[in-house]
Amino acid sequence: MHIPFAERVKYYVPLKMEGDAEYILPTETKYVGEMKDGMFHGQGTLYFPSGSRYDAIWEKGLVVKGTYTFSDGLQYEAEHWHYCDSCDRRFYTEICHGLKPAGISQLTNMDPPRKIPEGCYDCGDGFYNPATRIIKDYRNRFLRNADDDEHEWIIRTCRKGWDEIVGHRPKL
C-alpha cells in the first residue's frame, strides 16, 4: 500500500515508519495503529472524515481481517447483508428509533437530511453537479470527477436537489 503523505508519525526508522503511529492522509482519513517497514502492520484503525471507521488487522499493508462501521454505528457485514434492501427498506436510524408517523417520510439515514444545492445530487460522500461532472464534499471541497458509469449511477439512483412531478403509472 503506497501512502503519499503523512502529518504525524510517532516513531521513525530512516525513511520508513515503524511502531505505533498516527498517520493523516491528504483525504483527511487518519490511520491509528501499528506500522512496520512503512506499511500498516498489526492492529490499526482508519478513521474517515464522514465519521465512519475501519478496524483491521493488517499484514504488510494488506487487510487480513477487518470491520467497517458507519458513522451511525451500523456495522457492515459482507455475508448476508440485508440493510435497506427490498425486504426491509428502513434506514438504520429507523430500525433503532422507530418509524415516523404517516406523512412524515424519512428520506435519508440522516434526519433531517442535508439540503442539496439546486441542480445537484447527493451521492453519499458529497454533492454531484451533472453540468460539471464534479463531486464536492459536504464542505464544498473538490473530491473527484465522475466517470460515465458513476454519472449514470448518480442520475439513476441518488437524491436530487429539486422536485419533479412524476404522474400516475397505470401499470407497474
UniProtKB/TrEMBL annotation:
> What does the UniProt entry say about where the protein is found?
Cell projection, Cilium, Flagellum
Output the Gene3D superfamilies linked to this UniProt entry. Histone H3 K4-specific methyltransferase SET7/9 N-terminal domain
> Repeat among the record's keywords?
yes
Q: Which UniProt keywords apply?
A: Cell projection, Cilium, Flagellum, Repeat
Q: Which Pfam families match?
A: MORN
Task: Provide GO CC annotations from the record.
Answer: motile cilium
**Membrane-spanning ranges:** none
Report if keyword Nucleotide-binding is assigned: no
Q: Say which domain of life the source belongs to.
A: Eukaryota
Q: What is its main location?
A: other
Its name, as the record gives it, is MORN repeat-containing protein 5
Taxonomic source organism: Enhydra lutris kenyoni (northern sea otter)
Q: What is the lineage of its organism?
A: Eukaryota, Metazoa, Chordata, Craniata, Vertebrata
Gene designation: LOC111145558
